[in-house]
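In the previous lecture we treated proteins in isolation. Real proteins rarely work alone, and many bind small molecules. This record shows how such a complex is specified: first the sequence, then the SMILES for manganese (II) ion.
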Amino acid sequence: MNKDILFVKPNKLQFVIDSKTKISDAKFIILPIPYEYTTSYGKGTAKGPKEIIKASSQLELWDEELKYDLYKLGIFTAEDFKYTKNEKEFFSNIEDYVNFIINNYTAFPVFIGGEHSITQGLLPPFQKKYKNLSVLHFDAHADLRTEYEGSKHSHASALYPASARSRIVQIGIRSVGSEEKQFINRGNVKTFLMHENLDFKALKKKVIENLTENVYLTIDVDGFDPSVMPATGTPQPGGFGWYEALEIFKEVIYRKNVVGTDVVEVSPVKGSNITEFNASKLIYRIIGYVSQKRKYI
Ligand SMILES: [Mn+2]
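The predicted 3D structure, ligand included, written as tokens:
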């Protein structure tokens, strides 16, 4: 194990403005993982974390839905997770890092990607720590390929390894490859195809019924409609609207024990900052929902 990675330094750029919070006092910890290795179409997701954190300085600190200055709860922003261009090393190091974070700090972790394959490294420590963990997987793509373009760690395989150990509940799905269709609605995987689940009230209920008590939430921004999150590597038409998605995230956070989340696949483009801004607002709102659930506010 590389001990250097187990020292969490504060980032010079901070999520919203919260310069005083030490990691030991934080209720929330933002962990940028700017990993990009296997993106197959639009590139640039390595710049996602930095741009999302930058955009967060434009958020109103008072959350209009939760009616609270959420930053006052204490949000610590960690320095970027550093990696070399060695897949194997990255996945072994990221697991050590996440193990360290979730077993040494009580703060709720929010990981910002980077490409979706990071979730392969984020999940095993949570699976070890929490018995009977399930995963709510929000995405346009099923991400269940055993490998893609020669890599088992592809963004297109993001959820495949976790499905051996945990229940995966997929929503927003509207792109499934013929080689991965055999994995949908089999074994641990419950897939709610987007076009079959446009009654969002009914979907919310089904999602709750299918998750276990402890839940990890993985959010690929392409699960949203491209009008909400246009800057992403592999967009698909017809995703969730802003309020429809928030309704589901809120319900899951209030009804279950959500233990961590990641927001991945923002690929900033020049001349438009919609996606990074909306992703930062999404993270701030999730922090708010978790704060309500944990009775911080
Ligand atoms: Mn996707």
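Summary for your notes: The chain has a mean pLDDT of 95. The beta strands are 28-33, 62-63, 68-69, 75-77, 108-113, 133-138, 167-173, 189-193, 214-220, 257-264.
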